[in-house]
Amino acid sequence: MSGITLRKRSLPAKVIVVEDDPVLGLSIEQTLIDNGFANVTICPTASCTLGKLRSGSYDAVVLDVHLADSDEGWGIAELVNALGDDNVRIVFQTGSPDDIPAHIRQLGPVLTKPYDPQELVAALRQRPRAGLLALLRR
């Protein structure tokens, strides 16, 4: 056998799913658990999400852009990007992808609802994208 070792890209250990549709949130949670993601938290509102982010760190955020308590869910992505480290994966999910400002789209893949759940799994396996502040820090 050759000395080449293939490293499997590590899955995010802690994922927060920001989704205000309870059925879709539970479906996403089950998909992630079925695909090896061990720690998945669902938050239906921006305020719930901010509380969870204050109380702990997360390796990935799956973010619905239009929430019941905020029509600009991408602000959460900006906050995570500004305050978190460069290893946090951000994946947007929305029925209105054109509503996301261009500079925000650079923070992570955008999945248009409805999408195949395996697209989310694949997006979360990608390397995190460097946001504007991370690029300026370099």
| CATH level-1 class | Alpha Beta
Assign the structural class, choosing from mainly alpha, mainly beta, alpha/beta, alpha+beta, or little secondary structure: alpha/beta
- Secondary-structure element order, as H and E? EHEHEHEHEHH
Total discrete domains: 1
Helical amount among residues, as a percent range? 25-40%
CATH topology: Rossmann fold
Roughly how many Å is the radius of gyration? 15 Å
Coarse shape: globular
Order of strands across the main sheet: 2-1-3-4-5
**CATH superfamily placement:** Response regulator
- Mean pLDDT equals 84
Q: Regarding quaternary structure, how should these chains be classified?
A: single chain
Intertermini distance: 40 Å
Largest sheet: 5 strands, parallel
Strands, total number: 5
- Give me the number of helical elements: 6
Which stretches are poorly predicted, pLDDT < 50 over at least 5 residues?
1-8
Strand content of the residues, in percent?
Answer: 15-25%
Looking at the overall shape, the CATH architecture is: 3-Layer(aba) Sandwich
